[in-house]
Amino acid sequence: MSVLKISDVTKVFAAGQVVAVDTFSLDVADGELVCLLGPSGSGKSTLLRMVGGFERPSSGAITIDGEDITYLPPEKRPTGMVFQSHALWTHMNVFKNLAFGLKLRRVPADEIKRRVENVLELVGLGGYGTRQVTQLSGGQQQRVALARSLVLEPKILLLDEPFASLDQHLRERLREEVRDIQQRLKITTLFVTHGQDEALSMADRIVVMRDGRTEQIDRPDMVYRDPLTPFVAGFIGTMNLIEGQVANGVFTRPGMSVPLPVDDGPAILAVRPEALDIAAAEGGEARVHRVTDYGTHGLVDLDLGDGTRLKAMVSHPDLFQPGQNVHLTPRAVAAYRDNAQIYRG
Question: Which CATH architecture has domain 241-344?
Answer without folding.
Answer: Beta Barrel (2.40)
